[in-house]
Amino acid sequence: QVQLVESGGGSVQPGGSLTLSCTASMNTFLMDMGWYRQAPGKQRELVAAVTSGGSTNYADSVKGRFTIFRDNARHTLLLQMNSLKPEDTAVYYCNTRGGIYNYWGQGTQVTVSS
User: Fold this and answer.
1) What Cα–Cα distance (Å) separates residue 38 from each residue in 18, 44, 50?
2) CB count, 10 Å around CB of 25?
3) What digits encode the pLDDT tens for the residues 41-91?
4) Complete DSSP assignment for the chain
């Protein structure tokens, strides 16, 4: 079983930046990884993902502002978030999946407000 621990959330003003970090309890280099978010009253949605081969995919709403990066040597997944908007406010979850396996972190809150 893979355990995922997120960190780096917090409160920031519009236009600001945050970097989320997700550390896995074991190497997930053969698994796809991603960040999802869920705002109050809304469904969980994909923010950004990176495959085991390094291909990335972003939600249209974050393209050009967010960057996902995985460091397999450190069992870490990062999400650099720039030019944050109030609509980015949500709980952000780290995910890793492969085959029949699908693991989630506990989530970290990101609040963008003036």
Assistant:
1) 17, 4, 19
2) 12
3) 999 999 999 999 999 999 999 999 999 999 988 899 999 999 999 999 999
4) ---EEEE--EEE-TT--EEEEEEESS--TTSEEEEEEE-TTS--EEEEEE-TT--EEE-GGGTTTEEEEEEGGGTEEEEEE-S--GGG-EEEEEEEEETTEEEE---EEEEE--
